[in-house]
Structures are given as structure tokens and as C-alpha cells.
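Continuing the batch. This is chain 6 of the set; chains 1 through 5 are on the previous pages. Same settings as before, nothing changed between runs. Recording input and output for traceability.
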Amino acid sequence: MALADRDTLLQTHCFYMEKLVVGPKARGAIDLRKSATENLLRIAEAEERHIEDLTVVVLDRPRHEQLLAEIRRAGARVMLITDGDVAAGIMAALPERTGIDVLMGIGGATEAVLTACAVRCIEGDIQCRLWPRDQAERELVGEEGFDPDHVFPADELSGGHNIFFAATGITDGEMLGGVRFAGEQVETHSVVMRSYSGTIRWIDAVHDLRKLRARTSE
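Output for chain 6:
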């Protein structure tokens, strides 16, 4: 869930976006118009590290075959995920906590906007570009008033100055644990962020099912 202080979340019917996400140390160093290799060089320089020390998270999809080959040629490590690139983007913006330094590749446009909300709370950096799947979708992008070659920075994906982002794990993931049932209790793991204050809260909660059932039956 993401909320802004006014209706400033990017809206599009284009299903996919190309994405590049990094943490605070590499903020301002990335440029989606450059190659993956050039961006990795820039990120490594900004973080005062070697490319070989960077870990790049990428969705495991056939469309990323060339991207993966380039990342590996550049010398960076690769972490493949089957889904969940919102969590992966947040992990890339929190490298000191997660060990992930960069997110690259093509994923859902809605997920890009959600990721931008979280990245702005963390003061990382994100750039995205619409990725039409065919000519019909490219024409639709034009009808919406967008240039398919335009690179969206974080504040165009998610505007405003008081953004909230909240997520709760359903199944176990790299960032959040899933819902766990133990008799009459349920354990959940969540993260809540706010851009205005820069606060990040990691919340482990235990819910009493007996009390919840009693309240819902009232």
C-alpha cells in the first residue's frame, strides 16, 4: 500500500516498465539511458566499491537474457527472483540491510510506482521507462500523453512530500517473513515507511484469533 499527500501517483495502461533502482549512496549516479555496464561502473564509483562487489537482482524472465549476460560480463553478481520485484526494489534501496545493491530489468508498471513510493521514503533512487509490448500498446502510451522513450525519475512516478508505504509479507520472502499460524495466534511481519520523516518501521505482530473473531461477531 502506498499513499501520497495528493493524487500524484503515475497512472498508465502500459503494463510494463524498465526499471533501475539503487540505494542512497548511488543516488544521482544512475542513468537508464546508459548501458547496464555503464550504470554498474557509476554505481560502483559512487559506493567506492568494485563492480565485482555489487549484487544485481533481476526477474528470471526470457526477456532478460541479454541483460543478464551483460551484467555477468561486467563482473557483478546476479540474484534471480521468480516474482515480487516491489520487494526486490526496496531491497536494492536498502543494501546495507539486504546485501542487494541494484535492481535492473523489466517488470510491472504498477509495481514500479509502488517501488518509487518506498524508494523516496528511503532516499534511494529509481528511474523507469515505459516498455510497450507491441504497437497497439505503444499507440496507447501516446494517447495517454507519454513519450515511450521518456525516463521517469522518482518524483514523477510518485509525487508529493508526505508519502506513506506499508507492506506485510504473505509468504516468506527475502525482505519480509510470511504469515505464520500457531494455534489461536497469527504472526505477521510488516514494514511501514514515511518520506516526510524518513522513518522506517519493521513491525513483528502477534494477532489473537479468538479476540479478533469475537470482535467481528459483535
